[in-house]
């Protein structure tokens, strides 16, 4: 009898151990999954933050460009000045202009967004030398 | 004026206008009402502007800027409220008529600058660049501070009118004191 109880007790202990092990392994799996999810979320957040920082930096860089240089860019894009006038601007100014134009091209909304995107993308393409002729105004799109 | 003006400055603190008959010399310093000003983008970096028109008579009555960054909506509402409501309006597209006006432009709030009224208001896509237009800020005050916005100016106005087949309405506004030095 006593032996039976001991054997049964051992079996219960074994079962309990199995259950505990299962719980622990399940918990470990859950913890691992949670850790992975947290890592992925952190990576996404870091990428978003980096994008936001880059965008804000581009905005500040654009704002820092003197008005006479912004006017030169406008005249180049209308064909009133040759593209060389843009090429002569400082590297940082050119980079800031192109970055802001790209953001503008990527950002339109509404029923006329195709025309707005095409015009602003053409502005980028012309300044970067991929388009032979200045884009001019919206009427061309 | 038989020939359309080449450029325009519109006072935003009270309705007043300056029309220039010759090209605007970008490298000169600008003084408005005796105060030195600096031209730059909108306070929230809009880069492009579109047109407000009277559809009946194809008159250019103003310009409009979308505010696509939600963070800037409240500051811009405050700035618009500090400026003259007859000239500057923060439009959050709450009314059906406003939504209809901006159907083609999406649902972002807009800042509108008017120099005339429209019997049949319309929106016209133009995507004109900062470089052709500038907001003018008091040079002595902190950049982008809410009190530093003085005026709005647009160059190549004659070409803008011609490209969009628009005319300028008769403007019965006081003259804005603009000097170049």
- Major sheet: arrangement of strands of chain B: 2-1-11-10-4-3-12
* Share of helix of chain A, binned: over 70%
- Give the helices and strands of chain B as they follow along the chain: EEEEEEHEHEEEEHE
Biggest pleated-sheet summary of chain B:
7 strands, antiparallel
Count of domains of chain A: 2
Q: β content of chain B, as a range?
A: 35-45%
Q: Are there runs of chain A of 5+ residues with pLDDT below 50, and where? A: none
Compute the CA-based radius of gyration of chain A: 31 Å
Q: What's the mean pLDDT score of chain B?
A: 91
| DSSP strand tally of chain B | 12
Average pLDDT number of chain A: 85
Order of helices and strands of chain A: HHHHH
Number of continuous helical runs of chain A:
5
Q: How far from one another are the termini of chain B? A: 25 Å
User: Main sheet of chain A, how many strands, which sense, barrel?
Assistant: none
Low-confidence stretches of chain B: none
Can you offer a commentary on this structure?
The complex is a heterodimer of chains A (141) and B (181). Chain A has helices at 2-64, 67-78, 83-87, 91-106, 113-127. Chain A is mainly α and 141 residues long. Chain A folds into two domains: 1-45; 65-141, no CATH class. The termini of chain A are far apart. The mean pLDDT of chain A is 85. Chain B has one domain (7-167). Chain B contains three helices and twelve strands, in the order E-E-E-E-E-E-H-E-H-E-E-E-E-H-E. Chain B has helices at 73-82, 96-101, 157-163; strands at residues 7-11, 17-20, 30-32, 35-40, 48-54, 59-66, 88-91, 110-114, 121-129, 133-138, 149-154, 178-180. Chain B has 181 residues and is mainly β. In chain B, the strands form two sheets. Chain B has a seven-stranded antiparallel beta sheet, with no helix packed on it. In chain B, strands 7-8-6-5-9 form a five-stranded antiparallel beta sheet. In chain B, strand 3 and strand 4 (35-40) form a beta hairpin. Chain A binds chain B through residues 59, 62-63, 67-68, 70-75, 77-78, 100-101, 103-104, 107-113, 115-116, 119-120, 137-139, and chain B through 26-27, 38-41, 45, 47-48, 66, 68, 102-108, 125-132, 134, 155-156, 163-164.
